[in-house]
Design brief:
CATH topology: Rieske Iron-sulfur Protein
Order of helices and strands: EEEEEEEEE
Largest sheet: 4 strands, antiparallel
Strand content: 35-45%
Strand order of the largest sheet: 1-2-3-7
Structural class: mainly beta
Number of helices: 0
Mean pLDDT: 96
Number of domains: 1
Radius of gyration: 12 Å
Distance between the termini: 19 Å
CATH architecture: 3-layer Sandwich
């Protein structure tokens, strides 16, 4: 995972099964830097601070704490990656 700046906004990009996902730079719980976490085998992005898990598809918290991680639609085109805000 990595952090990129797009339109003066820092977001995280992550790759899972040859697909690029874009989501918030920080965890909604305690502001952990999501790029310091990891993507598990089930395709959940895991916060490095408290191991909260979020769906890459929709940002839903899957470990039961009730938070949502902001996600952004992505599209890979011939001329590069597009992220919708």
């Amino acid at each position: 995972m990595c952090i990129v700046e797009v339109a003066d906004k820092k977001i995280t990009l992550g790759k899972f099964q040859d697909q690029i996902f874009a989501f918030a730079q920080k965890c909604p719980h305690a502001s952990g830097i999501m790029a310091d976490g990891f993507i598990d085998a089930a395709g959940m992005v895991v916060c490095p601070l408290h191991r909260y898990r979020f769906s890459l598809q929709n940002g839903r918290n899957t470990s039961g704490e009730g938070y949502y991680l902001k996600t952004y639609p992505t599209q890979m085109r011939e001329d590069g990656l597009y992220v919708a805000f």
